[in-house]
Write a structure and sequence with these properties.
Elements (H helix, E strand, L loop, with lengths): L4 E5 L4 E5 L6 H4 L5 E6 L4 E4 L4 E6 L5 E6 L4 E6 L11 E3 L6 E2 L4 E5 L1 H6 L6 E5 L2 H4 E5 L3 E3 L4 E7 L2 H6 L1 H18 L6 H12 L6 E6 L3 E6 L7 H5 L6 E5 L2 E5 L4 H12 L19 H42 L8 H15 L1 H13 L3 H11 L2 H7 L6 E2 L2 E2 L2 E3 L2 E3 L9 H20 L5 H42 L1 H18 L6 H11 L3 H23 L3 H15 L4 H8 L4 H19 L25 H25 L25
Antiparallel strand pairs: 1-14, 2-3, 2-13, 3-11, 4-10, 5-6, 5-9, 6-7, 7-11, 8-10, 12-14, 15-16, 16-18, 17-18, 19-20, 21-22
């Protein structure tokens, strides 16, 4: 064997065939990569084709990934469409991160069970990065036992690999061209883009369900290996591809809802998952694993609960700012009917947050959204609000006791403007509801299940869980405020420099509810003012690319990305440009740090939810225009100027486009987090 080649072994006893003869059009087209198949494999132990590290183990046991010592990424796929068998014919014996030797047993496969289910048993071994790593595969069709030589693959030299980068892009372009030829002539605009996306991710039959957020189409696929990432990412109208949290995410930007509607129209409403969780996570086998799963699930619930109402919060913040300007310039007064009407428009979404968040959280957690929304109505009922204003007549563990229930002393908190208690209520409802449906007879279920659920969950929140959650969330908010009070300038520098990193990891969803809670409880948020500066900085970097680049497609991305960031949504700028082109994100982060430092130094406060440049009205103090507004303008101007200048001079050049890195969200333990 040459020192520039690698031997790949047969996973099972059977006939070694070229990959273009395997009975799956995606694998046979080499869209996943070059390799080989094992036709008519024998049941029994499956063996690894090469030594390396296990990089992926499918939950259903039908596939594994291996990174070899030579840098090859191998996908071993047991049978065709066997993901639908939910793991029944397989027994996996390895786990992610494990080192394996060539020919080591990694699973067992029952071919009779696969055939009995009407599936093909052919095993596929694909080198998913073959375009970059392989020169050719020396192949001859022959019989081989498990662990015997299947093929010998010649590796590319480093120079050859670099030369083939352009060829890889050409392949993606060709895949797009092939799809366009097959696309029905009557499709255009978003319908055409939706058709192209669906066909490049393996077709409609490869999609389990789809949902969307502010910037992304989020697909749950049967088999992610069938998707042509490069071709999808290079479509006009697509910013990038991100694989996160079991989802195949296609970053679209401002047109996400239009593209989503077109996708659902072609897929069918039955595959529109909304915000429900459709992917089951593996059960942890350690205490730390449970901690990570709990944290991952919490972020997921917060994300799913908050995304649908972010636009409402932003719009309400803008109305609040406009109302502040009207009172500042004496167009109206606080005791006028005009003020009261506009104030109701701006304040209602915050006051009734438990109702809205209850509805969306219930959808996420599988409870009845209407019932949980009614529980949110209980929490915001005028009588509960009034009771919460009573003076405390005692305390228990620092929790004031200001009321009683059948003589039992309790704390009655104010839940208007709150978020976390109703999310807990939705979780309790998701556990109580199935139990009630099991014990309540069908004949009276329609009446008594909602009745009992509202009573049980409402009492659980009002008497026990609500006060505890309010105590904890209040403590967290106080802790952040304490850190800010300790040194607003240093806090601004640190948060300004690193907040957008939280967005990459999906951790910003743990911060956004704190901001909303802070604004709801106190009417303002210093933290949100710092976050606003980071949005402006990301937009400044995208603006520099727009001004500097001479590439039409890059300009086409940079323009909308800049506008989006200045409107408070940074993902198009970050994933479409700033992270993708190396130094740009670092330059934008420096700009965010500079803006955050000045925001803290000037003690800039913020009275609305909407940040970035479009949120200028949020910096108008309802009691009268003060230096927060001018501090916002100065800090935002500096953040914009620093990120723009650094990016223009040091962060980007058109030659970077040819070396663009793939941008993916980073996994936290078993999780690749979601974003907006």
């Amino acid at each position: 064997m040459s020192e520039h080649s690698v031997r790949l072994l047969s996973p099972a006893s059977g006939t070694i065939i070229p990959i273009d003869k395997v009975p799956d059009k995606v694998f046979a087209s080499k869209g996943v990569g070059d390799g080989f198949g094992v036709a008519s494999p024998a049941s029994g132990e499956m063996r690894t084709p090469a030594a390396g590290k296990i990089t992926m183990v499918a939950k259903t046991g039908h596939a594994i990934g291996i990174r070899t010592e030579e840098g090859l990424d191998l996908l071993v796929h047991l049978g065709i469409d066997t993901v639908e068998l939910e793991g029944k014919p397989f027994e996996m014996r390895v786990e992610k991160g494990q080192q394996v030797e060539a020919g080591e047993v990694f699973a067992t496969m029952n071919t009779k069970a696969i055939e009995g289910a009407g599936k093909d048993t052919t095993i596929i071994v694909a080198v998913t990065n073959s375009k970059k790593k392989l020169d050719a595969i020396a192949f001859d069709e022959h019989q081989a036992d498990a662990g015997e030589l299947a093929v010998e693959a010649a590796l590319k030299s480093e120079k050859s690999a670099q030369q083939d980068d352009a060829a890889s892009k050409a392949v993606a372009t060709q895949a797009q061209a092939d799809v366009e030829k097959q696309r029905p002539a009557e499709l255009s605009g978003f319908d055409a883009l939706a058709w192209d996306i669906l066909n490049l991710i393996g077709g409609k039959e490869n999609v389990k369900s789809v949902t969307h957020c502010i910037t992304r189409e989020r697909f749950y696929l049967h088999d992610e290996s069938k998707a042509n990432d490069a071709a999808v990412a290079d479509l006009d109208g697509v910013i990038d591809v991100v694989k996160a949290g079991g989802q195949y995410q296609v970053v679209i930007g401002p047109d996400v809802e239009d593209v989503y509607d077109a996708i659902v129209k072609q897929l069918g409403e039955d595959k529109a998952a909304g915000e429900q969780e459709v992917e089951k996570k593996p059960r942890p086998d350690s205490a730390w694993g449970w901690v990570k799963l709990g944290f991952s699930s919490l972020i997921g619930v917060i994300t799913g609960s908050m995304i649908p109402i972010i636009g409402l919060l932003a719009a309400s913040g803008i109305i609040k700012g406009i109302l502040s300007l009207l009172t500042t310039f004496e167009v109206t007064t606080q005791d006028s009917n005009t003020f009261q009407i506009i104030n109701a428009m701006s304040d209602s979404v915050f006051f009734f947050l438990p109702i809205f968040v209850g509805f969306t959280a219930a959808k996420r957690l599988g409870a009845d959204p209407i019932i949980v929304a009614i529980i949110g109505g209980v929490l915001t009922h005028p009588s509960i609000v009034e009771l919460s204003k009573q003076d405390a007549n005692g305390s228990f563990l620092s929790v004031p006791l200001n009321g009683d229930f059948f003589g039992l002393p309790i704390n009655i908190a104010s839940y208007s403007y709150s978020i976390f208690p109703i999310i807990v209520a939705a979780w309790v409802a998701s556990k109580v509801e199935p139990w009630l449906k099991r014990i309540v007879p069908n004949t009276v279920r329609m009446i008594f299940v909602p009745l009992l659920e509202v009573v049980i969950v409402s009492l659980a929140i009002l008497l026990i869980l609500g006060p505890v959650v309010m105590f904890i969330s209040g403590g967290i908010a106080n802790g952040i405020q304490w850190l800010y009070d300790l040194s607003p300038t240093i806090s601004g520098l640190f948060i300004g420099g690193f907040y957008q990193v939280l967005v990459i990891f999906g951790l910003h969803w743990a911060v956004i509810p704190l901001v909303a809670q802070d604004i709801a409880n106190t009417g303002h948020s210093y933290l949100n003012a710092i976050i606003s500066a980071t949005m402006v900085a990301q937009g400044g970097a995208a603006l520099a690319i727009l001004v500097k680049s001479k590439i039409a497609k890059i300009k086409g991305l940079a323009g909308p990305a800049t506008i989006s960031a200045f409107c408070g949504v940074t993902e198009p700028a970050m994933y479409g440009l700033n992270l993708k082109y190396g130094r740009v994100f670092a330059m934008a982060s420096v700009g965010g740090a500079a803006g955050g430092l000045l925001t803290g130094l000037f003690n800039v406060n913020m009275w609305g939810f909407t940040g970035s440049l479009i949120g200028f009205t949020s910096f108008v103090n309802p009691d009268g225009l003060d230096f927060s507004f001018w501090g916002f303008l100065i800090a935002s101007g500096v953040a914009l100027a620093v990120s723009f200048t650094l990016t223009y001079l040091f962060g980007f050049k058109d030659s970077d486009v040819e070396q663009a890195r793939e941008v993916k969200k980073v996994r936290l333990g078993n999780r690749e987090p979601v974003a907006k």
